[in-house]
Amino acid sequence: MTRNNRRNVTDLLDDGRTMATYAVPDGSSGGSVRAYLLHRAKPHLPPWIGWAGTGLAGALGNWRWEGSAGAGVGLTLASVALTGATWWAGKSTSPQRRLHSAVTVAAGSAWVTAACLAGPTAGPIDDMFLMGGPVAALSWNVRMVLRHTPDGAASGSADGGLLEKVGLARAQIGAAKVEPNRVTAPLAVVAGEQTNDDVTKALARIASALDLPTSAVRYTPDAGSSRRGELVIVPEDMLAEEVEWEGPSNLGGSIAEPLVIGRYDDGSLLVIWLPGDPDAGRNSTHVLVAGGTGSGKGDTALNLQTEILSRRDVIVWFSDPKAFQDFAPLRPGLDWAAEGGTDTEVMVEAVKAVIPARTRWLGAHGYRQWVPAAAQQQNDPAHSCQSGRACGCVGMPFLVAWFEEAANTLRALGDDAFTGIAQEARSAGISLIVSLQRPSYDQMSTSTRASLPSVIALGCDPRDEGFSLPETVLDAGAHPGAWGNRRPGYCYVVSPGIPEDRYPSPGRTRRFTARAVPVMEQLAAWAQRNGATADPITAGAATSVAGRAYTGRTTADGAPQPAALRAVQEEDDMEAYGGGLLVDPEDAGIDPDAELPDAEDGDDAPIFGREQGRKPSPDEARELFARALAEFETAGQMVVGPVDFTDWCDRNHLSRSWVSLRLKEAATDGRLEATNTTGRWRIVPTLAAA
Question: Start and end of every FtsK domain (predicted)?
Answer without folding.
Answer: 267-467
